[in-house]
Amino acid sequence: MRVAIHTLGCKVNQYESQAMEEILTARGHPLVPFEDPADVYIVNSCTVTATSDKKSRQAVRQARKRAPEALVALCGCYPQVSPEDARKIDADLIGGSGDRLGFLDLLEQKAGGKPQAEPVENLDDPFRRRVFEALPAGGLEGRTRAMLKVEDGCTNFCTYCIIPYARGAVRSLPADQAAEQAKGLARQGYRELVITGIELSTYGRDLPGRPDLASLIEAVCHAVPEMRVRLGSLEPRTVTEDFCARLAALPNLCPHFHLSLQSGSNATLKRMNRKYTAERFLESCRLLRQHFDRPAITTDLICGFAGETEEEFAETLAMIETADFSAMHIFPYSRRSGTVADRMPDQLPNAVKDARCHQAAAVAAEMEQRYLERWVGETLPVLFEEEADGLWRGHAPNYVAVYAAGVDLHNVLKDVKITGLHGQALEGVIL
Fold this sequence. Notes:
Elements: E1 3-7, H1 11-26, E2 40-45, H2 50-66, E3 71-76, H3 77-81, H4 83-86, E4 93-95, H5 100-111, E5 120-122, E6 145-152, H6 163-167, E7 171-172, H7 175-187, E8 192-197, H8 213-223, E9 228-231, H9 241-248, E10 256-262, H10 266-272, H11 278-291, E11 296-303, H12 310-323, E12 327-332, H13 350-373, E13 379-388, E14 391-395, E15 401-404, E16 413-421, E17 426-430
Parallel strand pairs: 1-2, 2-3, 3-4, 4-5, 6-8, 8-9, 10-11, 11-12, 15-17
Antiparallel strand pairs: 6-7, 13-14, 13-16, 14-15, 16-17
């Protein structure tokens, strides 16, 4: 059967989609683009915002309209959190955020059987999950960068976030198994590996001896010294003196650290139920810069959270300038039903949220420009991925995009002398 997969949401979803691609291909099912005719369409959904839910529903309906006789399956966080809503959108198979192998088994069974009036379901209680489901690591079709998921679940319960209810308790992949998967990816020809998880900083708390994240990173980096290893998003308190010293000793670890901020105001952070202060976040930035040469420190920011005053937002603007991020993802606060924050008083109008996003984005753009300009005249190793704008585009270890002229550079690592900026990226000459 021809299978098409559409993925919404985070890197963990991307990882799980590529794992399903690999399993289905191994079982003899060819993959086709989601926009093409297929026998089976899979929508791997996201539920982090109401907009994510809407996009998931739209993707199911588009597949049904494109191929009325095809089997349409919906899985991921949206049906896990909102099964009643998921049942209303005409999917033939509904799975949750776990048991991908069971979901694919049902998919094959249903594709070869008779049509049923009601969808077949493969849902469970995520808080009863205790075992990490090991899936094949790799990259989405045509990618040069592979992903290795080492953790699932989150119990932080930030007041704005629904994900703990979608993913359940923390489960971790033992370091020796992660290292073996990394070796397999190196043998497949991948040059870069991204270590990812739903809440990566909680890695190991469920394993015997409670190994820490640094131990996992060391095991993976040592296992594949020829690969670049990149980290997913980190909780700021993970960054300690010991963490930085151990990671700085790993030559193949990329000096790019994404620390989740969300707000630079302690009062707002408290309402969000974040577990750090603005001062602790800035300490993490200081430690990273002490141990790494011009590391890229990126972050997420939510503007206009419930009850955020003008004074609190001013504190955030001042704090992000002090942090001096290399890049930022900035979002207006989006109310999510089922969360504590959705029931909070003093919800702000969209116009205020948007205005604050624009203010923060202006500061972020200046910081990003300064960070990029620091690399002009330097030489960076670039892993090239694709042709774009008449040049080849790739990424340096700090995850800055770099453009250069060349021929057939897909998955090729080259040193590039940086000559200037290319929009929000760098441009240079291959040495």
